[in-house]
């Protein structure tokens, strides 16, 4: 299954959830937001959100500067 | 409402030429009250554009003093003002820019309780702060008091802009970053003046559009920019059903 992660193409060998995918990328950390296809996925949905062919996943880090 | 006097017609002539503007709209800006929290790289630019446009009442909050390292991007301050309270310097400069508007200052970091008291008086809150705890407190107060919030943030090459009416179930700052602890500040991560200015200009533009009730305000969306790559985009927020601010209270 082909997805995009932070603008890079990525191949998944088996169906997976967003939480498992982020963990495999060592990206499960505090102060981040994740969007799939330009829609923010609430944190409480990460465990149940399964990734689909063609999904465009983007990770955003909270910034506080002003 | 009284009509604009000739000096006002001249002062605001460029914006009055826009098809969405007329004297009634200008009076609308005169009658508006906006709270700007944080007078750093974002707040300096935001306050200057709002004062210039004739927003009638500005409430400026910041506990910080001007430092030498602020001057490359915090355009309201001069080298001679290092060590003085930002709110005082900002008020003097903005009053010189536009003596027609009323400016109140709060030389403090507002607590959640203080925000709750202040917000019912204002039409709009602009979050220009530099830390997560202030941002989340502002988000929470705007939810409770049902005051729209336009929040800007800039660090490194990244800019983020969030327009929220969090009581509408569209998600809030806490939904977006539920476990947010304090992130590195500008001094730790670096910042180039125009990057923060770019976010501030968008924040000021959205604020004026909101006050004038014109255009499309992206409430419930996060806009992001990467100043190094030149990329930008917009994400739709979703309410987190576990959000302690905007969901669990309902
Ligand atoms: Zn929320």
TrEMBL record, chain A:
Pfam annotation, one family: ThiS
Name of the molecule in the record: Sulfur carrier protein ThiS
Leader sequence segment: none
Taxonomic path: Bacteria, Pseudomonadati, Pseudomonadota, Gammaproteobacteria, Alteromonadales
TrEMBL record, chain B:
Claim: Membrane is one of the keywords in the record: yes
All copies of domain THIF-type NAD/FAD binding fold, residue ranges: 12-245
Any Pfam family matching the protein: ThiF
InterPro entries hit by this protein: ThiF/MoeB/HesA (IPR045886), ThiF_NAD_FAD-bd (IPR000594), Ubiquitin-activating_enz (IPR035985)
CDD domains with a match to the protein in the record: ThiF_MoeB_HesA_family
Keyword Nucleotidyltransferase attached: yes
GO molecular function, one term: nucleotidyltransferase activity
Domain of life (superkingdom): Bacteria
TM region positions: 34-60
Regions annotated as coiled coil: none
Keywords tagged on the record: Membrane, Nucleotidyltransferase, Transferase, Transmembrane, Transmembrane helix
PANTHER family reported in the protein's UniProt record: SULFUR CARRIER PROTEIN THIS ADENYLYLTRANSFERASE, UBIQUITIN-ACTIVATING ENZYME E1
Protein's UniProt name: Thiazole biosynthesis adenylyltransferase ThiF
């Amino acid at each position: 299954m082909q997805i995009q992660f932070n603008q890079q193409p990525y191949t998944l060998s088996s169906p997976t959830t967003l939480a498992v995918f982020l963990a495999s990328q060592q990206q499960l950390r505090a102060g981040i937001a994740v969007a799939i296809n330009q829609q923010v996925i609430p944190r409480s949905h990460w465990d149940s959100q399964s990734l689909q062919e063609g999904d465009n996943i983007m990770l955003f880090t909270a910034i506080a500067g002003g | 409402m009284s009509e604009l006097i000739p000096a006002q017609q001249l002062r605001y002539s460029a914006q009055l030429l826009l098809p969405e503007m007329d004297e009634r709209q200008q009076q609308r800006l005169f009658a508006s009250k906006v709270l700007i929290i944080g007078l750093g790289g974002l707040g300096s630019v935001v306050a200057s554009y709002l004062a210039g446009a004739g927003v009638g009442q500005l409430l400026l909050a910041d506990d910080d003093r001007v430092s030498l390292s602020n001057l490359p991007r915090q355009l309201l301050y001069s080298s001679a003002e290092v060590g003085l309270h930002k709110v005082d310097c900002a008020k003097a400069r903005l009053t010189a820019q536009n003596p027609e508007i009323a400016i109140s200052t709060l030389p403090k970091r507002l607590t959640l309780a203080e925000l709750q008291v202040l917000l019912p008086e204002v039409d709009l809150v602009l979050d220009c702060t530099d830390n997560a705890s202030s941002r989340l407190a502002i988000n929470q107060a705007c939810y409770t008091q049902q005051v729209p919030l336009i929040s800007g943030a800039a660090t490194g090459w990244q800019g983020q802009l969030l327009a929220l009416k969090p009581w509408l179930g569209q998600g809030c700052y806490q939904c977006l970053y539920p476990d947010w602890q304090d992130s590195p500040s500008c001094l730790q991560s670096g910042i180039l003046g125009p990057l923060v200015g770019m976010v501030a200009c968008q924040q000021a533009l959205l604020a004026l559009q909101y006050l004038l009730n014109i255009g499309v305000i992206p409430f419930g969306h996060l806009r992001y920019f990467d100043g190094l790559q030149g990329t930008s985009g917009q994400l739709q927020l979703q309410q987190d059903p576990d959000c302690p601010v905007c969901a669990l209270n309902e």
